[in-house]
DNA sequence: CGTCCATTTGACCAAGCTCAACCGCCGTGG
DNA sequence: CCACGGCGGTTGAGCTTGGTCAAATGGACG
């Protein structure tokens, strides 16, 4: 838990995110907060969990960015997803007792621990919350399908454009307001590993997008100049803004 | 439900698959069977659901193969996943009220319908089953990460090899026994759309694998000649064989 | 026997990769 | 205070993998 919690004040980023989608009962809120244990800090670039390491807990991102990745035999790397505040991460360890992916901090991070056993308890006693977690997992799975589609069937410019649009859309969920400028803590090598491109080609693609007036860069600050145009160009769909919860049953007694 | 169910006889493929991972109580078993509604047949090549079509239910594959895919602006297609008996599909409709992907029968199929509302009820009343569904979703998400990695960072031979290994591994869950020969109902164009390759290059890659003695083909019957070799060659990991359930709480009451 | 569709093959093309060098910024140590 | 080293970004030259276009083959089925 974050600490003794007079409802509404300084809750876990997970609880805050969930109540963004669904009004939680006091009991559900308390159960969620109680499931989380001590916090950990991870400095930018440091690993939180290494692939194939035994693990019995998940993590909730409270602050900062991380990514999950895998290393290949030949030294290559694929970045699978980025994780933002409010995300429940390390989910692959639910299905097995070892981590399937490496979790690495992109910026300085704060995460809190959520033991699998606590999650199991949560599913058993607050099934509605379980259902909501399932829905969020489904949405994230679709977001990953979008990345798969981009890598499988789009050229470099479209891949990069969808990534930038996706990051912006996800940040808006947490930040609330209207954002069109983002501070990218990623290196071009990171972006390449996420998009299935080399860092050299990521660089050329960035410059090409600038030349075409799609984006403007200033250091790692990046501004999307024509978002509707990019959305049309890539067929991007925002998977983060809304999630249906109408199918969850009304509160039990 | 399939029909009135004296436990153990002719249950839904979903119930059978779940009990492969976890011993279900009689109540859980009954609730699962009751959640499913009428069955539908879909002929090979026919769509079951079209992307962006409004939908309020999921489907359980009872028999046959399907795939989920998206179409691109330029006419291209990306196949995201294949679905086999025992799979709960159309999960993207949980997060929204319309389908995110198109579901198409690869072979002649039987599916049964599972309304979202029933799923919600299942989560609320049988949280342990909800947790198991969550674990399976997590495993499938990792399997999709593997495909992402293959498309993003591997060459054509490795991509095709991992796909063949993955299909074989998944079929073993349902079929039980030791399989090294599979009947592929997919065209080479389908395989290309799943791997981010053109059908022409899929063909060349198949021939190259034959030439190297990795596989043997006879019509659409395909035999993997050196499975350990291929596993080593690709770094393949079987994501289907086992799923941890130890974190789920013991039965309530 | 003809039609349709999947598979196969060839010739040529191009997006993105590799290798290599260079730049610019920043933190560190002398 | 400045020199040095390292990392990320930038750019060029040449190459490779896989794409494109087009045509031929072959099997299944009415």
Key features?
homodimer, 253 residues, alpha+beta, four-stranded antiparallel sheet, 11 strands, disordered N terminus, DNA-binding
Can you tell me about this structure?
- The structure is a homodimer of 253-residue chains.
- With 253 residues, chain A is an alpha+beta fold.
- Helix content of chain A is 43%, strand content 20%.
- Chain A has nine helices and eleven strands.
- The first copy, chain A, has a four-stranded antiparallel beta sheet. In chain A, strands 2-7-4-5 form a four-stranded antiparallel beta sheet.
- In chain A, strand 4 (66-71) and strand 5 (77-83) form a beta hairpin.
- In chain A, helix 4 crosses helix 5.
- The first copy, chain A, is globular.
- The two termini of chain A are 26 Å apart.
Question: Averaged pLDDT of chain A, please?
Answer: 93
Number of helices of chain A: 9
Residue share in β-strands of chain A: 15-25%
Major sheet description of chain A: 4 strands, antiparallel
Give the overall silhouette of chain A.
globular
Largest interface, per-chain counts? A-B, 61 and 61 residues
Residue runs with pLDDT of under 50 for 5 or more positions of chain A: 1-6
């Amino acid at each position: 838990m974050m600490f003794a919690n007079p409802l509404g004040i300084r809750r876990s980023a997970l609880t805050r995110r969930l109540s963004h989608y669904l009004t939680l009962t006091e009991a559900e809120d308390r159960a969620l907060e109680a499931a989380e244990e001590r916090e950990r800090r991870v400095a930018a670039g440091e690993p939180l969990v290494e692939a194939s390491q035994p693990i019995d807990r998940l993590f909730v991102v409270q602050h900062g960015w991380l990514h999950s990745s895998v290393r290949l035999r030949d030294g290559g790397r694929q970045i699978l997803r980025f994780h933002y505040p409010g995300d429940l991460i390390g989910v692959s360890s639910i299905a097995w007792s070892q981590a399937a992916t490496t979790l690495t901090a992109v910026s300085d991070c704060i995460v809190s621990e959520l033991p699998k056993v606590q999650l199991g308890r949560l599913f058993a006693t607050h099934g509605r919350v379980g259902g909501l977690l399932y829905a969020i997992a489904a949405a994230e799975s679709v977001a990953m399908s979008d990345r798969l589609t981009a890598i499988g069937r789009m050229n470099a410019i479209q891949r990069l454009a969808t990534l930038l649009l996706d990051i912006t859309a996800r940040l808006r969920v947490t930040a609330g307001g209207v954002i069109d400028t983002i501070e990218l803590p990623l290196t071009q090598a990171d972006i390449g590993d996420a998009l299935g491109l080399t860092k050299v080609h990521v660089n050329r693609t960035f410059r090409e997008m600038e030349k075409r007036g799609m984006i403007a860069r200033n250091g790692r600050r990046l501004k999307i100049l024509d978002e509707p145009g990019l959305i049309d160009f890539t067929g991007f769909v925002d998977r983060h803004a809304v999630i249906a919860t109408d199918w969850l049953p009304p509160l039990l007694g």
